[in-house]
Amino acid sequence: MSQRYFVPRGTQDTYGEEVRKWQYIERLARDICERFHINEFRTPIYEHTEVFKRENDASDVVNKEMYTFVIKNREGESPSLTLRPEGTAGFVRAFVQNKLYATGGSYQKYFYIAPNFRYERPQKGRMRIHHQFGVEFVGPSSPYADVEAILTGLTLLKELGITKFKLLVNTLGDEESQAAYKVALRDHFKPHLDTMCADCKRRFEQNPLRMLDCKVDHDHEAVKTAPMNSDSLNDVSKEYFASLKSLLEDQGIDFELDSRLVRGLDYYHHTVFEVVSTDENVGAQSTIFGGGRYNKLVEYFGGPETGAVGFGMGIERLLILADASGVDFNTQDSLDVFGMPMGDNAKPYVFKMVQDLRQAGLKVDMDIEGKSFKAQFKMVDRYHAKVTLVAGDDEVSQGTITLKNIQTKETVTVNKEQALEVIQAWLGEK
Ligand SMILES: [Zn+2]
């Protein structure tokens, strides 16, 4: 009995034109990272659960949406493992474990393109497996690093042709400023706490900053009248933020200050930023990429005090935006040359020529099934081949090949040694 199977809810298969769009974006992201001198970093797809679930972390991702599983190892222990819900924690774990703070230089820049797993209600652009392009810049606590990270993401949008977005920036201040702000928030929220949601009651203890972007209480009077963190910033934090804004202005980057921006995770200090879509077709205000500075995380994982800034960009959502912006991905399946053997005798002869042309750097395929001439020409159309390479008994006995330029209809029969030269001349003319 045969069975039919389907992809799990919230996941998808990717192939054909769609996968070529992915390749286009991934290639562009890698190319930009090369220009910015950002090296790739790969970490395991799962980590020990504690890597993601840290003390005092009140975010929804960590509390509700993780894929966690327990295995029994040979030592009889049952470690809890979790599929990565985000990229930063695993990266920092690896950075510390491999002592890169000691050996990797004083300013290190890394990127990754990897899947993240979140158990949430699937909707357009929010899959249970979603893919993220992210960067992590480690070393100096400097607004130059923050702006360089922002520039990396903005360059990708620009070179993709996405123009309808805006950059929001905020500062959470340094540790001292945040502590002062938390005190101010607790003083403010305390009298209102019994009218707020259960999550907010927990956040009040763990991190009252998170109460400011509560989805349940966003219209609550206490949220609207909460004190601004700018009132709690010390001089160092104010200076840092002023320098960041001035660097953005130098680069000609438009931005808006958003004093309510705190980001979804709890480890940020100083700069936080978000680039949101302003394209009405895809739902304005949806986040394209966001991140910030997380100076305490390397220490949390057992490393020395180290500055760090990064962002994550969801590739699924980027694709939706790119499609809405009419980005031309040039996703047609295409070939330089298609080989068409006429009869069994010519098949190994064409097979050998096809391989020679591939080694010369051309995109080449052929019919290996002995299809009719008509059926072979259908394949030429389907693969958008620019040149056909035909051989029958005559060509094999004379050591020649018949080439046809599909666009100009020009046909020549040449010695097989000359074929590459003719094809390259034809392809060069285009
Ligand atoms: Zn709430």
Descriptive tags:
430 residues; alpha+beta; 8-stranded mixed beta sheet; 5-stranded mixed beta sheet; 16 helices; 16 strands; 22% strand; binds zinc ion
Q: Ranges with pLDDT <50 over ≥5 residues?
A: none
N-C termini distance: 53 Å
Indicate the structural class.
alpha+beta
Give the strand content: 15-25%
Described by its quaternary structure, the protein is: single chain
Query: How does the overall form come out from the CA principal axes?
Result: elongated
Bound molecules: zinc ion
Q: Largest beta sheet, briefly? A: 8 strands, mixed
Structure characterization notes:
There is one protein chain. The mean pLDDT is 92. Helix 1 packs antiparallel against helix 6 and helix 6 packs parallel to helix 10. By secondary structure, this protein is of the alpha+beta class. Helix 13 links the parallel strand 12 and strand 13. It starts with 15 loop residues before the first helix and ends with a helix.
Task: Offer a concise description of the structure.
The chain has 430 residues and is an alpha+beta fold.
Write the layout of secondary structure elements.
Elements: H1 16-35, E1 39-40, E2 46-48, H2 49-52, H3 60-64, E3 68-70, E4 80-83, H4 88-97, H5 100-103, E5 108-117, E6 129-139, H6 143-160, E7 165-171, H7 175-189, H8 198-206, H9 221-224, H10 235-250, E8 256-257, E9 269-277, E10 287-293, H11 297-300, E11 307-314, H12 315-324, E12 335-341, H13 347-359, E13 364-366, H14 373-382, E14 385-391, H15 393-398, E15 400-405, E16 411-415, H16 419-429
Parallel strand pairs: 1-5, 7-8, 12-13, 12-14
Antiparallel strand pairs: 2-4, 3-4, 5-6, 6-11, 7-9, 9-10, 10-11, 14-15, 15-16
The structure holds zinc ion.
